[in-house]
Amino acid sequence: MRNNYDKIASMYDLLSRMVFGRAQVKAQIALLPYIEKGNRILIIGGGTGWVLEELTKLFPSGLQITYVEISANMLELSKQRNVGENEVVFIQSAIENCQFNAASFDIIFTAFLFDNFKEDKGRTVFTLLNNWLNPSGRWLYIDFQYTDTHGWWQRIMLQSMLLFFRFVSKVEATHLVDMTVLFRNAGYEVLFKTERYKGFIGAIVYRKLAVNNDAVSA
């Protein structure tokens, strides 16, 4: 199965910390204050689920979370997390195989999701998520990016990671999808942005505007 981290689920967080320290964690935590009590949240590719416990620290109750993860082993680890009194529905599936009604969610949370995809699937998944996010909803987006200053080593590092994950997890991506273009063409505005690991990790809060382009073109 493509983009499936079953084989390394038990050591995934350790690998992340060995390479990036807490940079990936801090980038994601930085966006959580943009969530509000009562929000309907869609989390895709949440890995081992540690972010659920961070959400519970902020909101012991009052959240409605749909948690989609393709890896059965990752999902089992996520189910063991403390979610307080929040309502969490766990779904094992590739996100492109899910079906939700339009405007079903107030928050979409994607951390290091789109770096798994080739261009065409990246656009397909973006279009699906855009449709599921309600007007004025917020998209909490965290992923790798290249900077002008450090782009050379970032490209080398990313290609090394993609090669490794292509071998162990059948990751299909060969390069980063230009997500900035997709968000801009769909009419999103940036509410907040921060960077970690010398800019290699970007964390952005996008707001969907009421007048939003459902058809995405790159």
Automatic annotation (TrEMBL):
Signal peptide interval: none
Database matches in PROSITE patterns: PABS_1
Gene3D superfamilies on file: Vaccinia Virus protein VP39 (3.40.50.150)
InterPro entries: Methyltransf_25, PABS_CS, SAM-dependent_MTases_sf
UniProt keyword annotations, A-Z: Methyltransferase, Transferase
GO MF: methyltransferase activity
Designated name of the protein: Methyltransferase type 12
